[in-house]
Amino acid sequence: VQLVESGGGLVQPGGSLRLSCTASGIIFSIATMDWYRQAPGKERELVASITSGASITSGAFTAYLDSVKGRFRISRDNAENTVYLQMNSLKPEDTGVYYCNFRGGKVWGQGTLVTVSS
C-alpha cells in the first residue's frame, strides 16, 4: 500500500487549497477514503470521509468534521485512484499535516503540510 499526498502549502486566512492523494496497492474503487489532519501538539483527527460510491442506486456519501462543514469538500476520481480535499475559507486552526487513508488502513503516507497564516 502506498499513499502519496500533495497540494499543501502556506496560505493566508480566507484562502483556498486543494489537496490530492493517490493510492496504490488497494482496490481503490470500493474503499471508503478518509482525510485526517494532525495539528502541532495534537492528535490526528478525522476531517472528511467519502464512501466508494460503487452502488448503482446512489453516489458516494460524504461526512465532515463539524468545524470544516461548509468550507471543505471531499471528492474522488476512481479512474485515477485519487481522492481530493478542496479547502476554502481556511482558518489558522486548519493548520496541520494532512493525511489520507482508506478506512481501516494502518500504513500512512508522508502527509502534506498546510499552514494558514498571515
How is this structure best described in words?
With 118 residues, the chain is mainly β. It is built from no helices and ten strands. It has a six-stranded mixed sheet with strand order 2-10-9-4-5-6, with no helix packed on it. It has a four-stranded antiparallel sheet with strand order 1-3-8-7, with no helix packed on it. It starts with a strand and ends with a strand. The mean pLDDT is 93.
**Mean pLDDT value:** 93
Helix-residue proportion: under 10%
Write down the secondary-structure element order: EEEEEEEEEE
Radius of gyration: 14 Å
- Tell me the major beta sheet: 6 strands, mixed
Q: What is the terminal-to-terminal distance? A: 37 Å
Figure out the total of helices. 0
Low-confidence stretches: none
> What amount of the residues lies in strands?
over 45%
Structural class: mainly beta
The number of distinct β-strands equals 10
Bulk shape: globular
**Biggest sheet: strands side by side, in what order?**
2-10-9-4-5-6
Which descriptors apply to this entry?
six-stranded mixed sheet; four-stranded antiparallel sheet; mainly beta; 118 residues
